Amino acid sequence: MSGTPHDHYASGHDDQAHDHDHDDHKPVNEHDDGPPGEYEIMSRAMQELLEQKGIITAEQVTKRMEQFDEEFPYHGGQVVARAWVDPAFKQRLLADGRAACAEMGAMLEAERLIAVENTPQVHNVIVCTLCSCYPRALLGMPPTWYKSRNYRSRVVFEPRSVLREFGTVLPDNVTVRVHDSNADMRYLVVPMRPAGTEGWSEEKLAGILSRDTLVGVTVPRLPA
Amino acid sequence: MKTIPSDIGGEPAGPVDTIDHGMRHWERQANAFRSVVQLKKITCTDELRRAAEELGGRYKDMQYFEITTSAVRKVLIEKGMFTEQQLQAKMAEIRARFNVPDEIESPLKTAAKK
Amino acid sequence: MSGSASLKSTYTPAPEHRFKVGDKVVVKTAHPPGHRRTPQYIRGKQGVIERICGAYPNPEELAYGFDGKPERVLYRVRFFQTHVWTGYAGPANDIIEMEIYEHWLDPAGAQS
């Protein structure tokens, strides 16, 4: 391959259409409007029953909500930013993702993490067709589209069309490598580091590693 | 030959809505509760997946957190953590709490506003 | 694609594994009821072992409250998209990979 890596990624969207990328970590509503639904009541009832039996506490559930909101969504970007600046760490991440994440304090629920690296020749994208398996301890909760029937059904057999809907257009000489996260592994995409980020701090690099880039539906771009 | 309602890879489907619509508050509670139940080793991912699949024909018309909440319910009852009757009674109690007229502040509403 | 395939894995050893990296395999065409992690669309398709993930409790047993012993060897198998989907619209080098337990795999050429 010749040329700079990012020659590959023509954008099918204008920048305006990508604004949602920057909303990845927006806080969610503190409570819902309207009367509670049947499943909300069911879930609260189950929690209270287990609290009454002394099996769990409300504090444990609240703590977990906070972790999902405030902690987990940032781990993935931090891990990949470290991999971008530290080649030895990147090798450890690619060899054994779970152990490398643990070095940085990110403990996965799943057995193993497989980190897959984008190169000028290969673009990786992750899906779970059977449910919605996702590295939650690294990326927080999956976005709506990841759980959607349309994404789960289609990205396995027409990945290039689906990527185009996210504004990611790949030429035919780049292999699209789809990973169906169908059993016990979890996956994280290590995107290519864009030109123009030389000398950036890990924190600044993590800022361009949106959730969507780490699932592989978009690629990191410099702020306009 | 399809035996599992969640096994949808390869089915024709429409364009992907690429916007993340976030989570409602109750979904955050449901997710955190499910996660704590797993951390306590009361159940595991495979049991929850299986319980979700056993929703059968209902699966395709349900939202994600409706599916996961139904799966948790099924597994917890299977494991004798509570009975269906106990769950129904508790749900009635919570429903009644929500039905407190607005001029009398429901403790639950007060908690939610904090 | 040879670059990422040659990556050394530090995963759980599975000394008893039946297949090695690079072996050609076929996913079984079977439709047993119950909880299965082998997607329908990949059953009957031929691929290549990409890596050995290790031995894990059998999810088909864990799903019903059993302990999943004996553990089963889990592989990542790589398939050419053109071998999976009739009329795949992308280039011939596009691939899809997923995890398949050993008891769902046969050596290529040996299937009946």
Oligomer: heterotrimer
SS content category of chain A: alpha/beta
Beginning-to-end CA distance, first to last residue of chain A: 27 Å
Average per-residue pLDDT of chain A, rounded, comes to: 88
Strand order within the widest beta sheet of chain A: 1-4
Q: Report on the biggest sheet of chain A.
A: 2 strands, antiparallel
Structural class of chain B, by secondary structure, is mainly alpha
Architecture of the domain at 75-215 in chain A in CATH? Answer: Alpha-Beta Complex
CATH-defined superfamily of the domain at 75-215 in chain A? Nitrile hydratase alpha /Thiocyanate hydrolase gamma
Give the fraction of residues assigned to helices of chain A: 40-55%
Q: What is the CATH class of the domain at 75-215 in chain A? A: Alpha Beta
Question: How many distinct folded domains of chain B?
Answer: 2
Distance between the termini of chain B: 51 Å
Q: Any low-confidence stretches of chain A, pLDDT <50, length ≥5?
A: 1-8, 10-29
Shape label of chain B: globular
**How much of the polypeptide of chain B forms β-strand, as a percent range?**
under 5%
Q: How large is the radius of gyration of chain A?
A: 19 Å
Helical content band of chain B:
40-55%
Q: What do we call the CATH topology of the domain at 75-215 in chain A?
A: Nitrile Hydratase, Chain A
Written overview of the protein:
The complex is a heterotrimer of chains A (224), B (114) and C (112). By secondary structure, chain A is α/β, with parallel strands linked by helices. Chain A has a domain at 75-215: Alpha-Beta Complex (Nitrile Hydratase, Chain A). Chain A has helices at residues 38-52, 58-85, 87-95, 97-103, 136-139, 144-147, 149-154, 159-165, 202-206, 211-215; strands at 10-11, 112-117, 122-127, 168-169, 175-180, 185-190. In chain A, helix 2 packs across helix 3 (87-95) and helix 3 crosses helix 4. The termini of chain B are far apart. Chain C is mostly beta strands and 112 residues long. Helix content of chain C is 11%, strand content 30%. Chain C has helices at residues 2-5, 59-62, 81-84; strands spanning 24-27, 46-56, 72-80, 95-101, 105-107. Chain C has a five-stranded antiparallel β-sheet with strand order 4-3-2-1-5. The chains are: A alpha/beta (224), B mainly alpha (114), C mainly beta (112). Chain A binds chain C through residues 94-96, 99, 111-112, 114, 116-117, 119, 121-122, 129-130, 156-161, 172-173, 175-185, and chain C through 1, 3-4, 7-11, 37-39, 41-42, 53-54, 56, 59, 74, 76, 81, 84-85, 88-91, 93-101.
